[in-house]
Amino acid sequence: MMENGYNHYKVGERVPTTTVYTRVRDESIGGPNPYKWDLKHSSDFFAGRRVIFFSLPGAFTPTCSTFQLPTFEEMYDEFKERGIDGIICASVNDAFVMKFWGEQQNVQNVELFPDGNGDFTNEMGMTANKRHLGFGDRSWRYAMIVDDGVIEAFFEEPGNNWNGADADPYGETSPENIMAAITYNSSNNQEV
Q1: 88: part of which helix (H) or strand (E)?
Q2: What does the alpha-carbon distance between residue 6 and residue 43 come to, in Å, rounded to a whole number?
Q3: 2-187 has which CATH code?
Q4: Long-range contacts of residues 169-172, Cβ cutoff 8 Å, at least 24 apart
Q5: Domain boundaries, the chain
């Protein structure tokens, strides 16, 4: 299904491959900011492992900072016990913003995925219009379980607001909801 000119990915499909602009520490640079650019492919985040990938409207925003990211961080070990190898948080923010947000949130386990240009979000068909808030185009809130690059389960908040509605629902993509889905399906010997 095409939305906003982009494919809306589904269970069973491989996630798109885009360039992700990250920063890595390099002591040879010296000074107060010893980091250099490291261009990765989005596939580097998924290869050979089963992960939860969740995307949210913005670093430092209320729901993202108060509930979603910290709760995924807190539940990290529980997800690992249920066969999840990693948790990745994406936002249409640059590497600098994501780095400092992670530090402010004291993130130790969740990997941050800076989708600064929104390329991955666009390819996923999950772009949301937040221009009425001064954010520009951001990601709609969604999450997925990805096994070696293939979408195994998909969770999406209702009512993607490409047209700029004020809605920002949160529930389907909460860590608690994803954990409940994994636990339920594990007890019924089903894949999720």
Answers
A1: strand 86-91
A2: 19
A3: 3.40.30.10
A4: 169/141, 170/63, 170/67, 170/68, 170/141, 172/143
A5: 2-187
Model pLDDT for residues 132-159, shown as the tens digit of each residue: 888 889 999 999 999 999 999 999 998 7
Could you tell me which of 111, 6, 126, 122 has the C-alpha nearest to residue 52? 111
pTM exceeding 0.70? yes
Distance of CA 15 to the CA centre of its chain: 12
Angle at the Cα of 143 from the Cα atoms of 140 and 144, rounded to 5 degrees = 135
Q: Encoding tokens for residue 56?
A: 């949210």
CA–CA distance, 110 with 124 (Å, rounded to integer): 21
pLDDT of residue 192: 58
Q: b/e map of 102-120 (b: 16 or more CB within 10 Å)?
A: beebebeebebbbbbebbb
User: What's the confidence (pLDDT) of residue 166?
Assistant: 65
- Active site includes 89? no
Beta strands across the sheet bearing 142-147: 111-114, 86-91, 50-56, 142-147, 150-156
Amino acid code (one letter) for 66: T
Of the residues 20, 64, 90, 124, only one is catalytic, namely: 64
- The percent of residues in the chain predicted with pLDDT above 70, rounded, is 89
Summarised one tens digit per residue, pLDDT across range 18-55 is 999 988 888 888 888 888 888 999 999 999 999 999 99
The two three-digit tokens of residue 77, written as one number: 């070990």
